[in-house]
Each structure stands twice: as C-alpha cells, then as structure tokens.
Design brief:
With 127 residues, the protein is α/β, with parallel strands linked by helices. The chain has one domain (29-126): OB fold (Dihydrolipoamide Acetyltransferase, E2P) (Beta Barrel). It contains two helices and six strands. A five-stranded mixed beta barrel has the order 2-3-4-6-5. A hairpin with a 3-residue loop joins β2 and β3 (76-79).
Length: 127
Amino acid sequence: MRKRIIVFIVILIVAIISYMYIYQDHRNIKNEVAQYKLTSNEIALQFSENYKNIETKYLNTTIEVNGKVSENDSNSITLDDKVFCQFNKTIKRTVVYDSKIKIKGRVIGYDDLLQQVKLDQCSINEY
C-alpha cells in the first residue's frame, strides 16, 4: 500500500512538471529589453558576410532595428529592403514610405535567397 502511494506521488509530480513545461508562458517581446540595437544596414551586413555564425549570435534574441521603411502592409514592414518585420496584429499606426522608424522584434533567421533578416513579434518603438 505504501509503495502505491509513493508511485502515485511520483507520477503526480512528473505530470505537473510536464504540464508546466508544455504550457509555459509565451515571451512578450514588446516588454523585453532589446539585447542589441542596430541599424538595418549593420545587421544585414553582418548576416551577408557570414550568416551561419551570426545567426547563432542573434537567433531568438530581442533586437531593436532602425532604418527607412521600404515596404509595408497591414501586418509587416520591411526596412531598407534588408530587414523584414512581421507583426502579430494589424499595424494601427500610419507608416509612411521612406520614413525612419525603430522596430523591436525577435530574430527568427536569415533568408539568403531574398537576403533579408527576419523578425517576428515586432512592435514599433519610434518614428
């Protein structure tokens, strides 16, 4: 009987830990402090020179990038044709083509075909 209680407690603890691991809170990039602050040209140059090593440095980190808006739609902005910024929600602010802007987001990789750094969970910091 005592053995069954111990086994039950161990199974319960493992189940609770597994549940907490699987359903952990998602990161809120908007509230995080940016680990790096760069221009779109600086980060694009770093990735174009040696994207394998640079990707390990920046991957899944929060960065702040500033540059000029080269493309935009309701859910994304591209800075200087080098940094693609994906937003979770529709952009509510009016973003003017060729205007300077600061965006914070999480680096998810580098598209070597388009030669663009990809960010997601972005938020606009300044114009």
